[in-house]
Amino acid sequence: MLRLAKFKQTKAPxxxxxxxxxxxxxxxxxxxxxxxxxxxxxxxxxxxHGDEQILGIVYGKYKMHINAQKGxxxxxxxxxxxxxxxxxxxFEKVDELAYRVVSGVTYVSVGLTGxxxxxxxxxxxxVRTFNHDCANTFVKAVETSxxxxxxxxxxxxxx
Length: 159
Fold this sequence. Notes:
The protein is an alpha+beta fold. It has one domain (2-148): PH-domain like, CATH 2.30.29.30. Helix content is 36%, strand content 38%. It is built from four helices and seven strands. 28% of the residues are buried.
C-alpha cells in the first residue's frame, strides 16, 4: 500500500502540469473560464496525442446533419485531425475526422450567438456557440490546415 501511495504522488504533478499547459493553450485560443471547466476540456489530455497541437476549439451545442445527432460538446482542430468530443458523467463520444474529408468551414454570427459549420464529404456538423473568439480561431485553423495539409488529395471525387 505504501508503494501505491508513492506512485500516485509522483504521477499527479505530471498530469497536473499537462492540464495546466493545456488550459493556458486553450486560453490563448479564446477559451474563457467556463469553457475550461467543461467535461470536454477535462477529457482532452487523454485524447490528444503527444505529437499533436490544438490549433482551434469551439464549444457549444452541436448538430450532425449526417444522422441527426444533437448534443453539447467541443469541436477540436489539431494539426493532424478534427475531433468532436461530447462528454457526460457516464458517457463519452469522440468522433475523429481527417482533414482530407473536410471540404470547408463557415462561420455565421448573429447577435450574441454564432454558428460554425464544418462541411465534410459525409455531411455537415454545426456548432452553435457564444464564444466568437474561439469560433474565429477554429475557422482560421481549419482553413489553414485544409490548404496546407500535404496528405490532402488534389481533387474531389464526391463519392
